[in-house]
Design goal:
The structure is a single chain. By secondary structure, the chain is α/β, with parallel strands linked by helices. The chain has one domain: 2-enoyl-CoA Hydratase, Chain A, domain 1. The relative contact order is 0.14. The structure holds coenzyme A. Coenzyme A binds next to α2, β5 and α11.
Length: 253
């Protein structure tokens, strides 16, 4: 894989690393495709018992790469955003997923954590889901999972006002297992992944099956998709994307 997604399989743990630190690991369509493929292959590879998600640099991910997203998803006749295949795969995953998160986890960077079974946050982690700021709606079944996890009003403030959640608050709210110093976050997540890899594969699969309402998640992803695609065509969403592009080109000029 060469689209800023690194994969390594060792001791039954598939480590997937976002390696686009210079762009804050903003996710392009090609990156989503690689992530989707990695999850699809992991699902059927008996050598993979645990998936560990991590990211290089100071930030977990800035979410969708906005210029790439505009190019691939807003043109007339464009296919659905590549992110949808990724979130469907996440929602359907039968193997445990562990995440190590430092810095900003924006958009799908925050919502994907709802599909992880163990989450370790660096003390500088910041979860942001500014969907309404971009005139969009929540995705990855987060419109159901986030209020379920942290309560309606906190989830609503995240989505509708773009209010970030810091690491300590995320821990208290049940979004993470532990908050550790940045230098320790990968090690802590890797240790947890190793512990899972030594457990009974069948018992882990059955436990995840019992704990995740996969059909509800899948249905909610499709419902969100309908609204998301509708919103994408709205003048407000196009204006929000243009504002980002204008800011970005001003910063580089
Ligand atoms: N899409 C495309 N490029 C992005 C990006 C995104 N979502 N987020 C950051 N980048 C790029 C910037 O354009 C910049 O590129 P350049 O160095 O070529 O100018 C580089 O990454 C660094 O970004 P910068 O904003 O200077 O980094 P920062 O460390 O000050 O802030 C963030 C980090 C994540 C807080 C900030 O980049 C941000 O808010 N990004 C947008 C997040 C967003 O709205 N995502 C959409 C969610 S659906």
């Amino acid at each position: 894989m060469n689209n800023f997604i690194a994969r390594e399989l060792r001791d039954h743990i598939l480590t997937i690393t976002l390696t686009r630190a210079a762009k804050r690991n903003a996710l392009t369509s090609a990156m989503y495709d690689d992530l989707s493929q990695a999850l699809e292959e992991a699902e059927i590879d008996p050598e993979v018992r645990v998936i560990l998600l991590q990211a290089d640099g100071d930030n977990f991910t800035a979410g969708n790469d906005i210029p790439d997203f505009i190019e691939h998803s807003t043109a007339p006749g464009a296919s659905e955003p590549a992110a949808f295949r990724f979130v469907r795969n996440l929602g359907a995953a039968s193997k445990p997923i562990v995440a190590a998160v430092q810095g900003n986890a924006v958009g799908v960077g925050a919502t994907l954590l709802l599909h992880c079974d163990l989450v370790y946050l660096a003390d500088n982690a910041r979860l942001v889901a500014p969907f309404v700021n971009l005139a969009l709606v929540p995705e990855a079944a987060s419109s159901w999972l986030m209020p379920l996890r942290i309560g309606h009003v906190r989830a609503y403030a995240m989505f509708a006002l773009g209010e970030p959640i810091d690491a300590t608050t995320a821990l208290q709210a049940g979004l993470a297992n532990a908050v550790v110093p940045v230098a320790e976050v990968r090690g802590r997540a890797a240790a947890a992944a190793s512990a899972l890899a030594r457990q009974s594969v069948g018992a882990l699969a059955a436990t995840k099956h019992l704990m995740r309402e996969r059909s509800t998640i899948a249905a909610r992803i499709e419902e969100e998709r309908t609204f998301f695609l509708e919103r994408l065509k709205s003048p407000e969403a196009l204006a929000a994307f243009e504002a980002f592009t204008a800011r970005a080109s001003k910063a580089t000029s």
